[in-house]
Amino acid sequence: MEPTHPTQDPEYFHRVVDCQYACPAHTPVPEYIRLIAAERYTDAYMINWESNVFPGILGRTCDRPCEPACRRGRVEEEPVAICRLKRVAADNKGEVRHRMPQVPTQKNGKRIALIGGGPASLTVARDLAPQGYEIHLYDEWNKGGGMMRTQIPAFRLPESVLDEEVNYILDMGIHTHFNQFVSSLKEILDKEYDAVFVGTGAPKGRDLMLPGREEAGNQVHIGIQFLANVAFGHLTQVGKKIIVLGGGNTAMDCCRTSRRLGGEQVHVVVRSPFEEMKASPWEIRDALAEDIPILNNMPPKEFVVENGKLKGMIFGKVRAEYDENGRRKLIPTGEPDVFIEADEVIIAIGQDNAFPWIERDLGIEFGKWDLPVLNKITFQSTRPNVFFGGDAAFGPENVITAVAHGHQAAISIHNFCQGKDVLDRPAPMTNLVSQKMGIHEWSYDSPVVVDERYAVPHENKAIALQDRKVEVELGFDEPTGFKEAQRCLNCDVQTVFTPQSCIECDACVDICPTTCITFTENGDEADLRTRLNAPAENTHQPLYVSEELPTKRVMVKDEDVCLHCGLCAERCPTAAWDMQKYWYNVTKASKIL
């Protein structure tokens, strides 16, 4: 293999910080976790706010793509509770407004329209307002937040937390046009905005047109509409017997909301196996903890209606079979159909984009699934002054992905309005600083603690089920937050090797607790991975290969299993190894000069 030069390639160490690399917004996770451990909550909050915009919201509701990537999960069962630590920073942050960008009173003459008040649009506003843009936000609801307000129940996300973080942005001089449903993009374009951003989400819930559906009428609800009606107080109670169809997070929110609105017998029915449900594991656990049974391998067949009133549903029974390519088929088992009583049914089987308000003669092309044809880097549509982001861009995802879209779309809008190439993307801000404070001392806590993941406390179930606005998860207190933060392996503190200083004593090999360092003859990557002291089988993680040493060997470190504990650097007699903190921050439009 050719020698790797990680100090010259910003993306090399970025890839090694697995949690940050997996985050769509590339939040500097280990840095803010260290700040939490140091009780610097405001600093930790602001690092989050710079990247993911909604730390208090995401600390409760994020889909956590960072946690499966966490290196801690490779040495024990559970990763660091990254998401819930974000909430620790938010809950203890103190006053932060004075730390936020100042918005100039003198505008730059450019006007931007944002359609939809969700996380993508709010991120665009947050990034462009400090640049002097005049921002106009249109939303059909009476408050901002979009799907965060209409689709996430208050028992998971208190309204006070949502209002606080949404208002941090709206208070930047954003012109809000609430209670205004945009029925025509042409009308918006006629207002001569310099650019338009569409962040309307995926607002169309899927229906299920089975026998009896039309007769059941308003006793059947569409999941996302049901949640929105509850959020705005239009729906305050449900029947005693409820069926929720679907296995995703929306279904989990619907069934748990139903329990709080009077549902005594709430069943979730899923056509697929339990192991293939799309809901996050923690959402499933919380639903089961509230005595909601989940029935799997039962496809719906019919709504049973008698004398104009819904009585329940009939379900078949299937088993899953897989071909040699892993494709699944649901095969009827031959068992009798199952009838489940219900006063109401909630359909939560997915949602789609819907753009009936965008005229098709405006130069905006649409492709598969009626999604706009976009440049995936710039989020620019085929009409140059119209940009998309969030679920409206590529279909349903999550809040943190919408934030990432908003950051990138804001850069594109800025470039477009300033007459620059929208493909001219600013490089990330990076830094690499030694953590050495002495021969055996570092400016971070390098020891690897043995604590297992700490459980987040929950409100008493009897209390939680009485009121849909009672928050269920109570969050870590400060002492527990500190202990959970100490589980972080500081993956952004990199092992940097200087071959010119190495005397090939192999002391680092002897002391490494995970056998991730090998001195051996070079070879091609496939061969080299098999000849290390511990075979490097995860090809998604790179090998750190040095230049050739005097003995004709090379140093090879498997980044996959390195704990960043610093023992190699402590043991090295010539300081050939050093622990250097790597800072990687994606440039935002608000930082472009």
Automatic annotation (TrEMBL):
Signal peptide bounds: none
Record key words, sorted: Iron, Iron-sulfur, Metal-binding
Pfam families the UniProt entry points to: Fer4_20, Fer4_7, Pyr_redox_2
Lineage of the species this protein comes from: Bacteria, Pseudomonadati, Bacteroidota, Cytophagia, Cytophagales
Residue intervals of the 4Fe-4S ferredoxin-type domain: 493-522, 552-582
Lineage: superkingdom: Bacteria
Protein name: NADPH-dependent glutamate synthase beta chain
InterPro entries reported for this sequence: 4Fe4S_Fe-S-bd, 4Fe4S_Fe_S_CS, DPD_II, FAD/NAD-bd_sf, FAD/NAD-binding_dom, Helical_ferredxn
UniProt entry tagged with the keyword Acetylation: no
MF GO annotations: iron-sulfur cluster binding; metal ion binding; oxidoreductase activity
